Amino acid sequence: MISLKEVIEVERPIEACFRYVADFRTTVEWDATAVSAKKRTDEPIGLGSEFSLLCRAGPTTISIQYTIVEYTPWQSIVLEGKSRWFTVRDVITFETREANTTRISYCADFTYHYGLRTLAQSTEASMQKLGRKSLQGLARALQDNNAPPAASPKTAQRDQHLLTALACFTRAGYRRGRRAWAPMSTDMSGKHVVLTGASAGLGFEAAVDLLDAGASLTLVIRDPTKVATMQAALLERTGRQADQVELADLSLLNQVNALSQRLLSANKPIDVLINNAGALFNDYCQTSEGIEMSVALLLLSPWRLTEALHPLLAGHDTPARVINVVSGGMYTQKLQCASLVMSADDYRGSVAYARAKRALTVLTELWSAQWQDDHIVVNAMHPGWADTPGVQGALPGFRRLTQRVLRSSQEGADTIVWLARAREADKTSGQLFLDREPRTTHLRQRTVESADERAALQPWLSQTYATLNLAEST
Ligand SMILES: NC(=O)c1ccc[n+]([C@@H]2O[C@H](COP(=O)([O-])OP(=O)(O)OC[C@H]3O[C@@H](n4cnc5c(N)ncnc54)[C@H](OP(=O)(O)O)[C@@H]3O)[C@@H](O)[C@H]2O)c1
Fold first, then answer.
1. Is 0.85 surpassed by the pTM of this model?
2. By alpha-carbon position, which residue is closest to atom 20 of ligand 1?
């Protein structure tokens, strides 16, 4: 048997350290050999949770199946790992040293099969070295002191060409981006997140990850029949549920107003507001308030909701975060306020969608500048191309063509979660993100809006809102 033993001390509460390590998917963020890590069981992390790890071993990789065989919050975790060549028993113990400092002792005992012990012994020194490096990685991950976000030169270069930029929207783009990510160990306990469009797709996956990170959630969905199923699915995946579910059809500004009023009356400060709800409408449709549906749901609604909730976002000690979920489709369109509301005659769903998302991206930049002194950071993200119910329903042809390269919903939602959770994500504002990196907002010069159009956007939103027939939707 080969035993590796390491001890680290980190300035983090014991609960945060325990939760981070127990989620063995995080090994990719700190283990010197881990290439990928997946959770194989659906239930919340605990006794019996299984993880599948792929680890580098010299020129090759080894697959290791781990199971949590002992789980004693906040004291210890024991995992058993099985591979073709060896079994390993990891015993991890946690101990509070002094205020806010935790000592983590990590012991891994390897037992080799098929008389491989002699061969393994010859690699013991390098294994000890890797063990030390991994625990240093864990200490760094738990220090949670990453550099502020910045686009790498390679990413900036990719954004200069349409095809290489579009390639980043795919699953391969996500996997490439992931290689450069810093660990994300921030604990969201005590953070209040308001997330719209949580019943499906990216919003649901973001809710799962945010609950896993300890956040308290207010989820906004429109269909009352989905509340129980959504809460049950969240409970099954995370062992937790949203604190509150609010019902609102966000294409109706009257309902957006009523929702804002309810949240303002509850007076619970908001740390993160995620404007995620959205859909692409292939056929022209007007809301009962008398405006084209895409512009109502994708632009007027997040504008009105965010402005109304400003008092609950402003003035916290740590900056509140507003995250606007936009779309790579907006790269095709230029902001022109006069063409945001399309008529039935010239309507094309993908164009209406892209124009609204473009406007929301510009609004992100405007809010970011205007709310600096209020301690609110405002960023946009686009998820690339992700296989969600929304894409399945609205873009079946696109989905058929691109199915092999589409991201999963979870991969698409990753940057939403990162913007909400990562400590370093509030060090920047007014940016558009993909895969945790700031990206260009224009792939072509011809989509750059004029200063006059930018200045006209907020007055246009107020004027358009004033024309709505709000009485019709009560
Ligand atoms: N998937 C992609 O590849 C992709 C790419 C670019 C941008 N996006 C953006 O990402 C966001 C999430 O999209 P998704 O792909 O996850 O779509 P999805 O699977 O259709 O989920 C959309 C969510 O928004 C909700 N929603 C739709 N209309 C609503 C309304 N009128 N009032 C309240 N909630 C409403 C839906 O509720 P129901 O369950 O009741 O329908 C659902 O919870 C959208 O803003 C979308 O534009 C997605």
1. yes
2. 390
